[in-house]
Every structure is written in structure tokens, then in C-alpha cells.
User: Fold this.
Amino acid sequence: MIISDNLKMYVQKLRSSNLRPTKQRLKICQFLFNREKTFHFTVEILNKKINKNRGTKVSLATIYNTVEAFTSAGYLKEILTSKNKSYYDTNTKSHHHFYDEGSKELTDIHYSQIKLSKVPIPPKGKKIKNLEVVIRIQK
Amino acid sequence: MIISDNLKMYVQKLRSSNLRPTKQRLKICQFLFNREKTFHFTVEILNKKINKNRGTKVSLATIYNTVEAFTSAGYLKEILTSKNKSYYDTNTKSHHHFYDEGSKELTDIHYSQIKLSKVPIPPKGKKIKNLEVVIRIQK
DNA sequence: TTTCTAGTTTAGAATTATTATAAACTATAA
DNA sequence: TTATAGTTTATAATAATTCTAAACTAGAAA
Assistant:
């Protein structure tokens, strides 16, 4: 069940992403944003989890569209990887990742855990939008 | 024409990647390593450039296999992106990138241009293999 | 409330990148 | 020179994503 306060929040997120609140999109919101902690996911995972149990079914196309809209609205962040699959993060704050080459898992690194003492000047006419560090780890 | 000194270097790279030197692989080497400057590429680009003009034709499968072997041997580096396509770099030294969100182009940042004053401790039992910074830029 | 329309959902087709397959070919050691 | 393990290739298979167009619906206007 969607509790009323969250519903408002979901509708606000959808509207500001230029999406009408529909039951499919609200179900996606519920799965993505009704949480204590942020998490990482792929569209494949989202599709499985959302359509696993009874209730509104949501098509793959709708999941792709909604995730894409949330990403460009800034409610989701795409994660940089070397895999041919898109990874997303519900943590949109500036932060970094460990990437385990063995298990292929991503773990968050809090922003404060990394400090840069020197950053290059961007090319002329360009501004820095964001800076991400990926630390590849292995056994 | 492959000049003799480079040929030796290519054969060495191939052998140490567990690949026999064949004319197809040598043609790939020539394109990748017969250069002043390092560069970024995708398999698609490699395929086009290599098969554009006369001479030995190389199949897509061979290109994929060779690039994969060079990558695990450490002669090429896979680049982290948010695209569903693999990007490679002939610069295998530790370095960083600007990623232009407009033009979707990658530019190298020399290692010395970024300095970290604080780096997190990796999870237990894991070692840091490498650390990459991607700076997203826009107009 | 009803109606209208622009926006939405969906199944399935199309596209794109990559990996697998298996038959014909070749480097190279003996 | 020959045998064979490795290689190449066209093509098929797979996987992720995007496209399409017909059926459906939110919500503004009457």
C-alpha cells in the first residue's frame, strides 16, 4: 500500500519529470523511493521485482521510459561501468564507488571518504558538472 | 607497410597475450600501436578503419577476440562509461578522463593533473587495483 | 458528469552490440 | 612435409535497448 505522504512525493517527482502519475509509474516509484537506504539496480532487476508478485503489471517499455525520465530529471543517476548494461543508483548525491572485479558488485563510497587536492581546469567553454571516482578492487 | 622494428613489437605483444601472430592480428596491431599518441576507440570504429581500404580484411569476430585478449593482457584498457558499448584506450597508464555530455567525447587527463589527499580503505580481503576519475563536463 | 485529446501503456518488432558455432584455413613444431 | 592445435570467418544466437502503432486513460474543458 502506498501511504499518502509518499504518494504526494511520488506525484511531485513524476510531475517534475514531465510524467503524469499513472498506477504503473506509481508502482515504480514505490519500489524505487519507498526505502530507508539508496540502492543500485538495472532495468532487468527492476522489471523482475516489480512484476514478481500480484498487483499492477508494468511493461518493460514503461520501465525503460520511466527510468530514463527520472534519470534526466535527476532523481536517478546512471553509474559508469565497463559492462554493456545500464546501472542506476537511487543515490543522486555526489559520491563514488568501489567496483569489485570478481563479484562485479558496486558499493557506495561516501563523498567525504575521498578528497581531491588537485583537479584540472575544464576545457574552454565547459564547466564541470560532476566528478566521480571508481576504485576497482580485487582479492 | 609494417616496418621491421614494429613487427617485432607486435609479435611480442601478441605472443604475450597468448595469440599467434597472423596477418589479421598484425593488421590490428598496426592500427592500434603504430602511433605517436594514444587514442580511444570502439570495436565499431576499429572495424571500419581496418576494413576501409585495400589489404587484408579482418572479420568482426577476430577484432572482438583480439581486443579482448589485449585487454586482459593489459595492452588495452576498457574505459568506464554510461553507454551500452565498450570503449577502449590504448593508453594503459593510470590516468583519468573528461567526459563531455554534449559531444559524448572522452579526453585524457594526465595522472599528474589530479591528486587525491584521501582515499578509502578497501573492504577486508580486497586490494585496490586501480582508481579512475571521470569528470563530466558540459557547456 | 461527460467528452475530448494529448499523453500513456503495451506486446511485439526492430535495432544494436556482443558472443557462440562450426567448417575451412594456417602457423609452426616435429 | 606433415600433423595438429590454433585461427578465421560468415552466420546464427543472445542480450539490452529502442521503436511502433493500436488500445487505453488522465485530466482539462464543456
